[in-house]
Design goal:
The chain is α/β, with parallel strands linked by helices.
């Protein structure tokens, strides 16, 4: 429950939302990226997002080859997470995240100004996705799959 895939949804006027998807349970976290999607802004947003997660939930992150991750070493230093990069033009190496980004386009169509969405609204969208049944989880929701795992680990 600690391996994540990440990417950016890019919107109008350099607006962006960071998307993090946990690989095993498909749990989605949406990260507001204020201002623009430069390496500095994305780094700051990811450091903030990972800083709120328990250490056990932030082990690895797989990202594409985008320029927005030029500050990956800074992110690793501040969060303790190890960042890996996909091979160029290999989106299947982050298949869970690519799938979720497709689902997110139902909420955030291309050409949308993503800067107008508040953290609270992004959390509500993530909660809807986390309560959506997935075939790959045996028709469980990501939320149910994670709860089931948590109950087993406590026993």
């Amino acid at each position: 429950m600690n391996r994540k895939e990440g990417d950016l949804l890019i919107g109008l006027e350099r607006s962006a939302i960071g998307t993090l998807v946990e690989r095993k349970f498909r749990t989605t976290v949406l990260v507001p990226v204020p201002r623009d999607h430069t390496a500095q802004s994305v780094g700051d947003a990811l450091i903030g997002a990972f800083g709120t997660m328990p250490a056990g939930l932030r082990r690895t992150l797989t990202w594409d080859q985008g320029n927005e991750m030029f500050h990956h070493r800074r992110i690793e230093q501040h969060t303790g997470i190890k960042i890996y990069f996909c091979d160029p033009r290999s989106p299947w190496q982050r298949a869970s995240n690519e799938n979720v980004n497709g689902l997110l386009r139902q909420y955030f169509p291309k050409g949308t100004d993503l800067a107008v969405w508040t953290s609270r609204q992004l959390n509500a969208v993530a909660a809807e996705l986390n309560d959506r049944p997935r075939l790959c989880l045996g028709d469980r929701t990501p939320h149910q799959a994670m709860q089931r795992w948590a109950r087993r680990t406590r026993q």
